[in-house]
Design a protein that fits this description.
There is one protein chain. The chain has about 375 residues and is of the alpha/beta class. The protein has one domain: TIM Barrel. It has eleven helices and twelve strands. The chain has a six-stranded parallel sheet with strand order 6-7-8-10-11-12. A two-stranded parallel ribbon has the order 1-5. Helix 1 runs antiparallel to helix 2 and helix 5 runs parallel beside helix 8. The longest helix is centred in the first third of the chain and has 21 residues. The chain is globular and about 55 Å long.
Length: about 375
């Protein structure tokens, strides 16, 4: 396979090393400056690039080592946004909290506009230090309009009164960001999206209806916005999306199979590939893959969990890939972990060596399933 997504791929985030975590705490306490923190991050990123290459991955990330979370670090630099603390429901699963907690939340305080971004420099550093394909991950623009909360509560009405206007400005802003990443040499970019997966959850759909929104209309608005972001991009810029059901400290928020959104997702969005979580029964079966159009689009099966350290049975994974191939050509399938290993600084509940063993396992299985590549 000559271009992304690759047969053995990864979602993006990696467990932060202890020295990075300690340096970020010292920076927050004012004990070190930005340049000292950057030097520690640079060194850690060089190590993690080499480790990814050593296990055989062809897509290389910086592990998101310079970020607090997968989502807020990007959105906070869009003009018109503001970060506030809000209480959110407790997640579920191994790392779930017993009560709601306060987290940073991106709100819309003014008209949205792209005015440059520090992550362009982050990508440039990554690209300069890998001979493989550097990959950048950023949150989908839908993340400003989350299913998990009423979008009206996070938007200043003096700035916007209609969701369509917000999405139009977001599309313009994101398109400018993609152009900047491309100019920096990016050819593989991923939009991380929980909202599409949240629409698969019947409970979240019901909550959406109760607050006065139509799930089908929301989906249509998002698709229009996403295609506005992707329209006119260079042919050699591959853009994928990752659909996530929640990944804080090995916990989760949503459940439900892809059947209700698969046709729209695969046939009405202009993505080149789709990273889908398939590590538990919460994801449903492979039947929705039948909607993937024949041709160049690919589905990356997230069959290896990042929520625990135990390695999967390789024969079982190969059998699941075979089961998926009953609905879509094997040539349009790839393999990856189900999510990142550290969507936030805290990371999931496994060790670094367990993380690397999982990534090596993905590569090993992919080589056995697609030996010619």
């Amino acid at each position: 396979m000559t271009h992304a997504p690759f047969r053995a791929d990864q979602v993006g985030s990696l467990l932060r090393p202890a020295d990075v975590l300690a340096a970020r705490q010292r920076r927050a306490a004012g004990e070190i400056g930005h340049q000292e923190l950057k030097a520690i991050e640079d060194a850690a990123i060089l190590r993690v690039i080499a480790r990814q290459q050593s296990v055989g991955l062809r897509s290389i990330t910086d592990g998101e080592f310079r970020r607090d979370t997968w989502v807020f670090d990007f959105l906070r630099e869009l003009e018109g946004t503001r970060i506030v603390e809000r209480e959110v429901p407790a997640p579920r699963g191994a790392g779930g909290q017993s009560a709601p907690k306060k987290v940073p939340l991106t709100t819309v305080a003014g008209r949205l506009r792209y005015v440059g971004h520090s992550m362009i420099g982050h990508f440039a550093f990554l690209k300069a230090h890998t001979s493989a394909t550097p990959k950048i991950t950023i949150p989908s623009p839908t993340m400003l309009l989350s299913v998990a909360r009423n979008w009206r509560d996070v938007v200043d009405r003096a700035a916007y009164t209609h969701i369509e206007d917000i999405c139009d400005d977001l599309a313009v802003a994101y398109r400018a960001a993609l152009n900047d990443f491309y100019a920096a040499g990016c050819r593989y970019l991923q939009l991380d999206d929980v909202n599409m997966a949240y629409l698969c959850d019947s409970g979240m759909r019901e909550a959406l209806v109760k607050r006065g929104d139509d799930p089908a209309r929301m989906l249509a608005i998002w698709v229009r916005m996403l295609n506005g972001v992707l329209s006119g991009r260079p042919a050699d810029l591959k853009v994928t999306t990752h659909l996530c059901r929640g990944n804080f400290r090995s916990s989760w928020f949503a459940q439900g199979g892809y059947e209700g959104i698969a046709d729209v997702l695969f046939n009405q969005t202009d993505y080149d590939g789709y990273f889908l979580e398939y590590d538990t029964e919460r994801a449903g079966g492979f039947e929705p893959l039948r909607f993937l159009p024949k041709g160049g689009k690919r589905v990356v099966l997230g069959l290896v969990t990042t929520k625990s350290g135990a390695l999967e049975n390789q024969d079982a994974i190969r059998q699941r890939i075979d089961a998926a191939s009953r609905y879509v050509s094997l040539d349009q399938l790839c393999l990856s972990p189900q999510c990142g290993f550290a969507s936030t600084l805290e990371g999931n509940l496994l060790g670094e060596e367990e993380q690397w063993a999982k990534l090596a396992e993905v590569v090993e299985i992919a080589r056995s399933v697609w030996p010619d590549e």
